[in-house]
Task: inverse folding
């Protein structure tokens, strides 16, 4: 993926992404015990109006349009309400099936029923085909039903054959792929859990993406932001409009927001993707949990989010910005294991503020876990200043040389007046 420079002209076109609206029937239902879920419909109304003001070429809903699962009696009413709330986005709105819309991926201990032919029939009555593709402005858009991956069902076989053919036919062109579940959230070899693909299905999809040169995979489901790369493919996991997941509140180095982290106002967002001739640029626009009642409209004093101006700052990143963390097991989503996850909000906030430079210890460049993320951040448009005490040793200079394309400066903090040993290193 090539991210575009700050000084670029207008994009070829812009499309919008909304995800995890978790809309419920108008009078509510019993599908969630959490008070914040009662705000989902109003929050979706706000996000929809905010998106419509950008006049995107089209909008993609990344799944979990509704909260009740297909086998619940409240599903149909929730789906009708979702279509009503999303209607300001017009006929060009495209749907990606989420596990709340079409059933969970197969997983022992998953809180809901698995996707099957019956749930697909119920889904299609409201939202159309669960997998399909379309073209716009020279880009091929591919939507898949991620709940099927690893199910071993005839439907999975059917989708796999279709997707392989679809990607092969468009190989070499620009392809963007949309999957409710992210293939992974920390590393491509992580064990299976509630928020990723099982290993065989993940390896299959990543192989297909690599072979066909997929530019990016967009996902939702986790209700948090993550950025990963695999070969040349960017993998984005986008935040919701409705509620944050309380299990992820334990990932961050501050106390949880209200409702044990389930109502983290600063994380609610929709996204815009600017398509340029040689790449794309993601803009994640906060909604701050604002909502609208039926019949209400966004007021004029609520400005339309603009593209961030480049900010000439270098941010000192003191915290462990690249380190993954074993999260506590936490029901109902992850009752039986500790998944690894990383706080990627540093990158998101840098993008949102237009900041493209960070300052971090030189030791980070020599740490394999940090080095991988340094490469990822650079691919995402970030440049680095490294600092150290005294003169770097030969190994550190070698690492600097290898990474020189992404380095603004190396700060050697020393009290010595004899810098003669620096001459050899710089040469
Ligand atoms: Fe969701
Ligand atoms: Fe989901």
Result:
């Amino acid at each position: 993926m090539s991210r575009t420079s700050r000084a670029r002209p207008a994009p070829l076109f812009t499309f919008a992404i909304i995800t995890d609206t978790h809309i419920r029937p108008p009078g509510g239902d019993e599908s969630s015990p959490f008070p914040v879920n009662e705000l989902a419909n109003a929050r979706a109304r706000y996000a929809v109006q905010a998106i419509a003001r950008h006049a995107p070429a089209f909008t993609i809903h990344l799944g979990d349009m509704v909260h009740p699962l297909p086998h619940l009696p409240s599903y149909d009413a929730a789906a009708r309400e979702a279509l009503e709330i999303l209607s300001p986005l017009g006929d060009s709105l495209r749907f990606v099936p989420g596990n709340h819309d079409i059933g969970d991926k197969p997983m022992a201990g998953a809180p809901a029923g698995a996707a099957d032919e019956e749930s697909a029939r119920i889904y299609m009555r409201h939202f159309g085909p669960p997998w399909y593709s379309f073209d716009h402005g020279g880009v091929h858009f591919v939507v898949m039903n991620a709940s099927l991956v690893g199910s071993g069902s005839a439907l999975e076989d059917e989708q796999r054959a279709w997707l392989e053919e679809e990607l092969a036919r468009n190989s070499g062109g620009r392809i963007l792929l949309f999957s409710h579940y992210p293939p992974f959230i920390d590393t491509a070899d992580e064990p299976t859990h509630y928020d990723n693909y099982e290993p065989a299905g993940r390896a299959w999809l990543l192989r297909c993406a690599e072979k066909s040169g997929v530019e990016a995979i967009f996902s939702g489901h986790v209700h948090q932001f993550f950025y990963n790369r695999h070969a040349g493919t960017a993998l984005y996991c986008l935040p919701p409009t409705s509620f944050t997941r309380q299990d992820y509140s334990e990932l961050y180095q501050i106390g949880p927001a209200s409702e044990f982290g389930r109502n983290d106002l600063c994380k609610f967002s929709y996204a815009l993707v600017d398509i340029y001739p040689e790449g794309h640029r993601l803009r994640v626009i906060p909604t701050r949990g604002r909502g609208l009642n039926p019949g209400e409209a966004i007021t004029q004093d609520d400005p339309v989010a603009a593209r961030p101006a480049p900010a000439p700052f270098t941010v000192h990143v003191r915290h462990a910005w690249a380190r993954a963390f074993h999260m506590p097991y936490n029901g109902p989503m992850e009752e039986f294991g500790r998944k690894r996850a990383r706080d990627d909000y540093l990158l998101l906030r840098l993008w949102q503020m237009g900041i493209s430079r960070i300052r971090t210890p030189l030791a980070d460049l020599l740490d394999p876990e940090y080095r991988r993320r340094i490469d990822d951040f650079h691919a995402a448009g970030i440049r680095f200043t490294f600092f150290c005490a005294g003169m770097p040793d030969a190994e550190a200079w070698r690492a600097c040389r290898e990474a020189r394309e992404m380095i603004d400066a190396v700060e050697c903090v020393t009290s010595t007046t004899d810098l003669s040993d620096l001459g050899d290193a710089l040469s």
Notes: The chain is about 25% helix and 20% strand. Residues 166 and 311 are 41 Å apart (CA to CA).
